[in-house]
Request: fold
Amino acid sequence: MRYKSQRVAYPYFAVALLLYGLQMVLGLLSAAKYLGPDPLLHILPFDVTKEMHTNLLIVWVLTGFMGAAYYLVPEESRTELYSEKLAYVQIVVWTLMGLTAVIGYFFGWTTGNKLLEQPYPLKLVIVAVMLLFLFNILMTIKKAGRWTTTEGVLVGGLVASAVLYLPALGSWDNYTMAVFYRWWTVHLWVEGVWELIQGGMLAFLLIRLSGVDREAMEKWLYVIVGLTFISGILGTAHHYFWIGVPSYWLPVGDIFSAMEPLSFLGMAIYAYFALRRSGFSHPNQLALHWTIGSAVYSALGAGVLGLAHTFASVNKWTHGTLITPMHGHMAFFGAYVMIVLAVITYAMPSLTGRKDDRQSAVAMWGFWLQVGGMFGMTMAFAAGGVAQVYLERIMGMGYLDTQSKIRIHFVILIVTGSIFATGVGLYLWDFFFIQSRHALRVMREQRERGGVPVEAPSAAPAPGE
Ligand code: HEM
Ligand code: HEM
Ligand SMILES: [Fe+2]
Reply:
């Protein structure tokens, strides 16, 4: 850790990971409900568990983004954070907001707009916290008087994410209008400005893990930002095929969304070249695994599996079937979960004061079980989805009859989901019981020695600068 205030990232990472664990419980519960019987039907029905599952995902990934920004911005701008205290206040308010939302869903307190179900007062808290966060980050950069392209792209993505949350504050009686504007937040987040966040983190990690030239990395970053905007903005139209808007959206959606995989492909290529040029020799092999994993899985999950159902001629069959979560799971995991875990894995040795930044075997198992489990889950959704499209949409079989024919795919989903969740459990175990325990020991030793820091913060530039 080169700047003391970078330590505020730790509570963000800890909260993010705890919510990740909870998200898994609700994912498995949602999958089990498909199979039934469901003893919790009247207490915790499927719509509630799914809503909790997806909202926890969004809250914890955003928590991870904020923690990553607090870790990365001081290092890139070479200064301490503007205010550590504000960052602590922010995480407390944010966590309370997240927990209130989840408990509220249990009691039916929801606005029911998929992925944006947060009730209005909580939406206002989200806006306030985002403003607090951006204020702290932007004041840090202002104080330093210097910023890099890498952090500029990351912070630009975060500012734009806050702005794009504003359409979610509106409410419309007309369902078409509600759906139309919902995508301004949901689509423009995951296929727009969050890609900038991913790209910024990827550049930060590759520069440090591979020692590749910063200038070359940042040139690529401009290309990726350009590709994202050219394809992603009008690509929103791939959600406008069947919602009751004029038919000119059909070709717009086809053409622009078909170009969206290019930016994910770009990121995968740039990760490949960075590592080929500079080698895989960094001792934090696990952070390297998560970083390359994110580049590869997002190209597959978002790029390939997104393309698989993005044309209107295909989407008219697959829309709203299990093909959607087939793509949604791998894309979200590859692009946003893996990159957040990569930053956490990279940052942990320095946050906990460990000299040795090699990983534990537990954490490596955590990686492979998540990667393998997610592959299996994607396959289960895909096989179930193809069968569902054929039986329900082409043969005209009823929804429930179709479900009774595809039960085996949900059995496989639960098995592979359990493998995945075991991987998450191991990652959490490593974070809380192996790495954090080490940090506590270091702190105790430090106290016993009268407060002399074990490692003095160094002002030497990081590799690649
Ligand atoms: C990391 C990037 C991406 C993530 C996290 C992501 C995630 C998701 C999620 C969660 C949904 C379901 C949304 C809902 O119903 O509310 C969805 C839908 C969809 N995505 Fe993506 N996606 C990504 C990139 C892409 C790309 C690049 C394409 C196209 C090339 C694409 C094509 C689609 C389509 C066509 C749907 C609508 C499915 C339907 O009609 O039911 N996605 N995506
Ligand atoms: C233990 C592992 C998991 C299981 C068993 C699981 C299961 C499920 C189930 C059954 C649904 C409802 C699908 C439907 O509406 O038909 C769902 C939705 C969803 N899950 Fe998971 N999930 C797991 C992990 C994850 C992870 C790691 C992520 C993020 C990377 C995630 C993101 C989502 C999203 C975005 C949706 C909404 C997708 C849509 O509406 O199409 N899940 N999940
Ligand atoms: Fe989209």
Residues 454-465 have pLDDT under 50 and may be disordered. The longest helix spans residues 407-448. Residues 114-115, 186, 190-191, 238-239, 257, 260-261, 298, 302-303, 306-307, 309-310, 315, 319-320, 324, 327-328, 331-332, 335 surround protoporphyrin IX containing FE (ligand 1) (CB under 6 Å).
